[in-house]
Amino acid sequence: MAKAKIRIHNMLFYGFHGIYEYEREQGQKFFVDIECVTRDNKAAETDDPSLGVDGAIAYGVVRDVVENERCMLLQTLATHVNEKLFNRFPQVSEVTTTIRKYSVAVQGSLDCVEVEVTSNN
């Protein structure tokens, strides 16, 4: 049985997440990727958008979670994104959310911290 993967890369949101209190108060930019795997390929077979994953709606779901929830751990945030995407798109069997945080309080040089969480439904 065919499945489909729908990906959205490098969404940029401003959120209030982090271990330190100042991160949750001041906020910062987060970059998010999602990959949704459908249970089947009925959307393509029927050309019925209601059976697929609408990118604009998925973007809105991710935006709502990242901008309106506050989490200490990026793993928690990614898990919440996955849960909300499953709730909105019951035709999805797997979601992977990747979150990148570029402003990291470390004594050293790095590009970013990245967390990836894959959940199955």
Overall form? elongated
Strand content: 25-35%
CATH topology name, in short, is GTP Cyclohydrolase I, domain 2
CATH superfamily descriptor: GTP cyclohydrolase I, C-terminal domain/NADPH-dependent 7-cyano-7-deazaguanine reductase, N-terminal domain
Radius of gyration: 15 Å
The tally of domains stands at 1
The CATH architecture: 2-Layer Sandwich
User: End-to-end distance, in Å?
Assistant: 17 Å
Got a strand count? 4
Taking the sheet with the most strands, its summary is: 4 strands, antiparallel
Q: Average the pLDDT over all residues and give the rounded result.
A: 95
Uncertain regions spanning at least 5 consecutive residues: none
Order of helices and strands: EHEHHHEE
Mind telling me the CATH class? Alpha Beta
Helix content: 25-40%
Strand adjacency order, main sheet: 1-2-3-4
Q: So how many helices?
A: 4
Which structural class should the secondary elements be placed in? Answer: alpha+beta
